[in-house]
Amino acid sequence: MRVLVTGGAGFIGSNFVRxxxxxxxxxxxxxxxxxxxxxxxxSLFALEDQFKFVEGDIADADLVNxxxxxxxxxxxxxxxxxxxxxxxxxxxxxxxxxxxTYTLLQAVRTYGVRYHHVSTDEVYxxxxxxxxxxFTEYTPYNPSSPYSxxxxxxxxxxxxxxxxxxxxxTLSNCSNNYGPYQHIEKFIPRQITNVLTxxxxxxxxxxxxxxxxxxxxxxxxxxxxxxxxxxxxxxYLIGSDGELDNLTVVRLxxxxxxxxxxxxxxxxxxxxxxxxxAIDSSMLRDEFGWQPHYTSFREGLRSTIDxxxxxxxxxxxxKAAVEARYxxxxx
Length: 331
Ligand code: NAD
Ligand code: TDX
What we know:
Number of helices: 11
CATH topology of the largest domain: Rossmann fold
Bound molecules: nicotinamide-adenine-dinucleotide, thymidine-5'-diphospho-beta-D-xylose
Number of strands: 13
Strand order of the largest sheet: 3-2-1-4-5-6-11
Structural class: alpha/beta
């Protein structure tokens, strides 16, 4: 099978490429990535001779048509992915997440190529902290941020291309990922690298907001199940029952790094900050027998901390610029 992976130099995409090449099945991988600030070829270190890398934009129709014409399937990760950036400047989010997805959909439509669309639970908006409910495949869309609104728009395009043009697509909406190669602008690696550079972790507001954490390897093992056995037109929710509030996560990072769990700062809250995400992944588990491998967040977090400690060269040069961006955004 020839798989075109968009965004394969980003966090989840690079872990997907590594896992895919390690599966021992006959797959030819091509990565299409624009290498924005969030993408790095060093995330694909030591794999270079096992796949083809193309630096380019998913909104470039000629390039996309050419690459899609040579593929059997497309797994679409490429996106602008950070909520805080989408509040500071929404425009690249509209271009990449909406126009980029549209460009890919037109190409898979033209060449009859199987397409999987990687999306987020944020399209459903947020839940109250005391609500026993979780998101299901039937929860109505209600996105809050420019980022999640563009992801919701891209999901809707996929659904329309399935219904109107018979595109062979599946969708998945996953909860918050953590693990190696995550950009240090994101919550968990930002705090780990803060501690490693002698800076106090930064918690937005009171830290009561809840995220449903899943290890990136579990997201990717679920994606392969959907790719191989998913029903065309269907949406699958991916999560591993990892609900925790941000305060608990910051304290756990500090504890696992042998620091005082109170050594963090409360900073200005994110505008429109979603309160809680929670995924009901029972459909995926019941239909495919999928199970997450990382059932202990504590152990997954410990190995993630070890990875950032052991791979300083991967993130160190960028740390000052990322924090300067946050300073400019006053968070
Ligand atoms: P990321 O920001 O780490 O990586 C995005 C990658 O896309 C980068 O390599 C970047 O260079 C590339 N890219 C950006 N614009 C591009 C363009 N125009 N053309 C080609 N490549 C481009 O993101 P991530 O966290 O790995 O997320 C990957 C996907 O998974 C996204 O679609 C995101 O919405 C979705 N998702 C993420 C999470 C999460 O917790 N991180 C959870 C659920 C879903
Ligand atoms: O310094 C911080 N302090 C803090 O308290 C940062 C960067 C974040 N936070 C909070 C905000 C959120 O409640 O931590 C939580 C997680 O923040 P992010 O890592 O920015 O993730 P989130 O906004 O929840 O979105 C993530 O999950 C869904 C990904 O970035 C998205 O790409 C994915 O779709």
